[in-house]
Amino acid sequence: MATKRVAVLPSRIPDPLGLAGPDRVPEILLLLRRRLWSMKKDAALEAALTRNRRWIVNNQIKNLLLRSPGRTATVRSLQKRFKTFDLQGHALNWLRKYPCCFDTFSGEAGPDGGGGEEFRFTFSKRMAALVDEEEDVKQASEPAMARRLSKLLMLSRDRRLNVVKLNELKRNFGFPDDYVLRLIPKHPETFRVINRTGRQNAMEIELLRWDPNLAISAVETAAIERGTEPRYVCSLPETWFKTREKFDEFNDATPYVSPYSEDRTESEKRAVGVVHEILSLSLWKKASILKLEHFKREFGLPVRLNLLLLRHPCIFYVSNRYKIYTVVLREAYNGSELIDKDPLVVVKDKLGELMQEGLHEYNRRRHLANLGKKRKRGKIELTPKKEEDDENGEEALRLDTVEKREERKRFYKVLFDEKP
Fold first, then answer.
1. pTM exceeding the 0.90 threshold for the entire prediction
2. Can you give the CATH number for the domain in which 350 is found?
3. Residue 104, domain member (yes or no)
4. pLDDT tens across 47-94, in order?
C-alpha cells in the first residue's frame, strides 16, 4: 500500500513566539497587535472624543451654502450630494429636522431644474448670525494661524511641508480650506510656495525666516510661568505608582530636549517633545495617529509611533473610538472638558449647541403631532376623573406620611428610652 506524502508549505507569516501551526499564527499575531495598541480606558477622555455624526453632516451642508450664491441652494442639489455625506433618504426631511439651523421655502427653479418652482433652503437667522461670527473669528485669528503654520514649519527638518499632507491636518490646526491663498500672500517675507518637480501633488510651503520668539515649546512656556526647569507633567492619578515611577525616570534621566533645537539627533525624548508640541498647536489637543505617521520623515518621528505613545501614558492617551486611533494630550483636558479653548473652538461649540437645539425642537413638534393623531384615532383616552384621582393620591400620601412619622417615633423610643 503506497503512502501519501503531503507537502507542507512554509507560512509567510512570522512565528514570533515559536508556536507551530498555520491556524494559530494569525490569532497570535492578532493578539500581539491588540496588545501593541492597548491602553486602559479613560471614560472622561473617551467622552471628549465623542463625535456627533449629525454635526459633521450639518457642517458639510453649511460649507455647501457658503459656496452657493446668496447662501441659498436647491434641495435637489443637496439630494445629489447625500451619498457623499453617507446618508440615505430625502434631503428635505433632513433639513426640516433642524428648524433652528435651516429654513426651507419654495422658490424659482434653477436653469437645470426644468422651470417652475422647487424647494430651496438657506440659513436660519440664528444660524446665519453664528456663521458670520465664525467668519469674523477666522479673520481675527489669521495672525494666530500664521504663527501656528510657522511653528509647524520650524518643527520640520527641511523647514517645508507638503501641502497635500498638511491638508490632512488643516482642521486640527484651524486652517480654512483656502489657507494657502489666504495666509501665504499676506506674509511673503515668511512663507513661499514651491514646486520642485512640477507635479500637482508636489507643492510645498517653505519657511523663509526663522523667528526665535516662536522657537519656544509649550513645555518651556509652562516652565517659565512656574519658574522651574522645563519638564513634562504627569496627568495620571497618584494611585498609578508604577507608571508614575517610570515617568519620573524618563523625566529625570536626561534634560528636556526642545523640538525646536538645532540638534536633530533622533532620541525618544525629542520624539516625545515633537508630538507634544504638535498636539499643543492643535485646537482640540488631539490628532489621528495615522495622519501623524504621514509626517515621520518631516518631523523625525519613529517608525512605530504607536509604541512611543503607549510607553508614555502620563503624557498621552491613545483611543480607538470609532475604530480610529487617536492620541490626546492628557494635560490639556480637565475630565472631558478642554481647558484652554481657542476662539474658533468656542464658536464651533455654539454651532453644535444650536444644531442640537434644532433637533430637540423637531422631536418635540413630532411628538406633539403624533399625540394629536392618536387622540383623533381614540388610542389615547382622556381621564375625566383626574381631580378625584389627585385627591385620592394626596390622601394616600398624607396617610403614608403619618404612618412613617409614627414609625419613626416608635424607633427612637426603643433606641433611647427602653432599656435592654
1. no
2. 1.10.10
3. yes
4. 888 766 778 888 889 989 999 999 999 999 899 888 777 777 888 988
| CA–CA distance, 105 with 116 (Å, rounded to integer) | 14
Q: How far apart are CA 155 and CA 275, in angstroms?
A: 10
Q: Which residues, 6+ apart, have CB-to-CB distance to 259 below 8 Å?
A: 155, 217, 270, 273, 274, 276, 277
Length, in residues, of the chain: 420
175 CB-near residues (< 8 Å, 6+ apart): 145, 148, 149, 166, 183
- Amino acid type, 339: I
Specify burial of residue 373 (Cβ count, 10 A radius: 0-12, 13-18, 19+): exposed
Residue 394 CA to its chain's centroid (Å): 50
Interval 289-305 mean pLDDT: 91
How wide is the angle at C-alpha 331 spanned by C-alphas 279 and 326, nearest 5°? 45
Q: Which amino acid is at 346?
A: V
Helical spans, DSSP H, in 20-52: 24-37, 43-48
Q: What residues make up the domain containing 305?
A: 216-341
The residue assigned the cell 516662536 is 214
Contact indicator for 28, 36 with CB cutoff of 8 Å: no
Q: Compute the distance between CA of residue 114 and CA of residue 110 in angstroms, rounded to an integer.
A: 8
